[in-house]
Design goal:
The protein is an alpha/beta fold. The chain is built from 21 helices and 19 strands. About 45% of the residues lie in helices and about 20% in strands. The strands form five sheets. It has a six-stranded mixed beta sheet with strand order 7-19-10-6-9-8, with helices on both faces. A five-stranded parallel beta sheet has the order 2-1-3-4-5, with helices on both faces. A three-stranded mixed beta sheet has the order 14-12-17, covered by helices on one side. Strand 4, helix 4 and strand 5 form a beta-alpha-beta unit. The protein is elongated and about 90 Å long.
């Protein structure tokens, strides 16, 4: 179907060569010489694009623009004029003109403008399809050859970038192909983690190893405090890389951004990973040195991380960090409290160190399997990313960040773990004392199918507590989740297509650490 163009100019006969070029490219072009005629014709017929002169007899271009935008605020209108006054440009832009060309214009300029507004989506989709097919073999090669942490980060970033690209270009039809590459990548990533992960669990990171959870504050927060830089440490619980990249363009409006990556400890659960983040210690060492603050699987969700500020104070003390100002810890767990903190941002900016935990994304991930409307709003990963952006735009976190952008300080923003969309149930055997999480189980002689789980019979090898000789741990691979034999099909169906964490996957383990400095 031809695109239709309306060209409004009181000297339209001088533009005949331009019109002929457009018609030769398959565009249907109608012409009028006055603003009044343009408005009347636009009421009667549909036009995909309008070229509009500014200086015409009778109704001016700006007046015509105003009327045309009332008829359809979304239709693109390009102003073409001899007038080079900046005030005119400002006025036209203020009235939502879509583009502005100064006469004389060449036929190629007009053609380029048409392609930009009428053919851009088709041309971009064609380019995306060609580029993905070109990159496909390179991605496959990287998936099958990655042997170093840096290579897995590079691969993960590439897969996330392509997922975001296909979010925009939904008609390309490559989602299934990319999904298969994701699955193959996670399958081999599990093997990589099984082989390499235990060697990374050192008190100080080695040069050829990734940072893991207990290393993050040492690497990114403490150097700022040593320089007496006011610092805000924000942990967004359950923030995946794709979610961060979805909101990053908004944050970039106010901050310069440096992004690094670290590896979550296992299990990728708040109980273990976030306490390790704040303590600068592995879970076994938290229990050893601070047994009064060590969480257990039987604790309620709130009490599992109740001592994060205490653990962080002890970390500062062990490192000999003397704060020149106040340290404040805040956990934002509900909307009204978040708005209150947002209103106090100028006070927070005076602290030497402020630690903020934001729980909304973790709550959203867990609520999705229990809330039908949430699952309808976010039926797949693309929609889940879109929901994340929508939440962020209206969140107290975004308000806090915008408020902090007015102050001379540095923000370190990260997460404790990600989450994966679970699609395949696997039966697990354990007693009543076994932990309840769907992506990992801690208990006595817990058993699961080897194709779905990594079994760790000695948790101390992973620097985790072990409370009895028969206690072991299983971690879900890929997109599996664990279900007990009792009412297996009921719970398998209930939690299929839910976002969970605790196991081994790219999405759960490779995490962004973002340094934000106000512009």
């Amino acid at each position: 179907m031809k695109h239709t163009i309306l060209w409004v100019d009181d000297e339209i006969e001088l533009l005949e060569p331009h019109i002929q070029v457009l018609r030769s490219r398959g565009y249907s072009v109608e012409t009028v010489t006055t603003g009044e005629d343009a408005i009347e014709l636009a009421r009667q017929r549909w036009f995909d694009l309008i070229f509009l002169d500014e200086m015409m007899v009778g109704m001016s271009g700006l007046e015509t623009l105003q009327q045309l935008k009332r008829l359809d605020p979304h239709r693109p209108i390009i102003m073409v004029t001899k007038n080079e006054q900046e005030s005119l440009m400002d006025e036209a832009i203020g009235q939502s003109i879509d583009d502005y060309l100064t006469k004389p214009v060449s036929p190629s300029q007009i053609l380029a403008a048409c392609k930009k507004f009428l053919d851009a989506r088709m041309l971009q989709q064609q380019h995306v399809a060609r580029q993905y097919l070109k990159d496909f073999s390179q991605l496959d090669e990287l998936i099958n050859s990655a042997v170093r942490w840096e290579e897995w980060v590079e691969l993960y970033r590439a897969l996330v970038q392509w997922s975001l690209e296909l979010d925009v270009h939904t008609d390309v039809g490559l989602e299934q192909t990319l999904s298969e590459q994701w699955r193959q990548a996670n399958r081999l990533f599990v093997r990589f983690i099984e082989q390499q992960y235990p060697a990374w669990l050192t008190d100080r990171p080695k040069n050829d190893h990734p940072l893991v959870s207990p290393h993050v504050v040492d690497r990114y927060v403490l150097p700022l405090l040593q320089r007496q830089r006011k610092t805000v440490f924000i942990v967004v619980d359950c923030l995946r890389l794709d979610q961060w990249m979805t909101i990053e363009p908004l944050v970039r409006q106010h901050f310069t951004i440096q992004t690094s990556y670290y590896c979550s400890i296992l299990p990728t659960a708040t109980l273990y990973a976030r306490n390790a983040l704040f303590a600068g210690l592995f879970p076994a060492d938290i229990e050893r040195y601070y047994p009064q603050w060590a969480p257990t699987e039987g604790d309620s969700e709130n009490s599992q991380n109740a001592h994060e500020p205490d653990l962080m104070r002890e970390l500062l003390k062990r490192r000999g960090i003397e704060l020149g100002g106040k340290f404040e810890y805040i956990k934002i767990y509900e909307t009204e409290f978040g708005k209150r903190i947002e209103s106090e941002v100028n006070r927070l900016a005076q602290n030497q160190l402020t630690a903020i935990v934001v729980s909304a994304l973790d709550m959203m991930a867990h609520s999705r399997s229990d809330t039908a409307i949430l699952k309808e709003i976010a039926p797949d990963e693309s929609a889940y990313r879109s929901l994340t952006r929508s939440w962020f735009q209206h969140s107290s976190l975004w308000g806090i960040l915008r408020g902090l952008a007015a102050h001379d300080l540095t923000i370190v923003l990260t997460t404790d773990h990600g989450a994966i969309r679970c699609m395949r149930p696997s039966q697990v055997i354990g007693d009543r004392e076994t932990s309840t999480c769907l992506r990992y189980k801690v208990g006595r002689n817990v058993k699961a199918d080897a194709k779905a789980a990594v079994t760790i019979n000695d948790p101390t090898r992973y620097r985790l507590p072990k409370h009895s000789a028969v206690e072991n741990l299983i971690l879900a691979k890929d997109d599996y989740y664990f279900v007990y034999p009792t009412d297996f099909h009921h719970y398998a169906n209930k939690y299929r297509d839910s976002f969970q964490h605790g196991g081994i996957s790219l999405e759960e383990m490779i995490l962004p650490v973002v340094i934000l400095n106000p512009k």
